[in-house]
Amino acid sequence: MMKTENNKRVALVTGANQGVGLHVAKQLVANGFIVFVGSRNFGRGEAAAKEIGPGAIALQLDVTDGASIAAAAAHISKEFGRLDLLVNNAAISNTRKGNLSLQEYGKVSMASNAPLDEVRAVWETNVFGVLAVYQAMLPLLRKAPTARIVNVSSGVGSLLLNADPAYPYHKSFSPVYSASKTALNAITLSMMVELEGTAIKVNLVSPGFTKTNLNGYEGLQSIEEGSREVVRVALLGPDGPTGTFTRWENAPIPW
Fold this sequence. Notes:
It is a single chain. This protein is α/β, with parallel strands linked by helices. It has helices at 19-30, 42-52, 66-80, 102-107, 116-142, 159-162, 177-194, 223-234; strands at residues 10-13, 34-39, 56-60, 85-88, 147-152, 200-205, 244-248, 251-252. An eight-stranded mixed beta sheet has the order 3-2-1-4-5-6-7-8, with helices on both faces.
């Protein structure tokens, strides 16, 4: 087992080879963390870790593959014996959008016509993948003096907001991506309940509508803007809050 240099904290960011995950990994390294850059494609993870520099370690991690998750947990355990921070960032928005605009894709992703195979594929990553990683990494999080889990969700998963016809994304609520984030919020709540009274804190954050590969770069915010809440919450100390769902400090999102 390697001794962490100067007792640096150890973090894992899933889906960290691009977009918000990559920026979050960069910021964590800049703040003194050793960061495992989780990437389904190891080559892309290696390139991202090289871009970030010392303190970043590429880790092959496909959140839909149990063997990959188990191997990743075993590797972190062998190297450091604990995990101080888990950022569940990996997500997909669709499997078949192709060159369609978000509006065009929305017309073929309604409750009446969304292919169940696509719903299952998106939920496999966004919901079941997060739960599987949580289950594998929890023993390592329990070995840290204080640990935090940050799950990256979205305001489009809020039932209260989306039930309001005046909400800007009301019309685009679908069983594919939007409902996967609603389910992720529910899964996260179950983690929060399970870990009440322990040294592990759990937070849910929304990066907002950010320009990423997830939405074909049609988002309205930069990667830096979209990453800031994930980074802020990830860097909260042991006295920081748990059980929150926020888009920024003192800006909660209704469940």
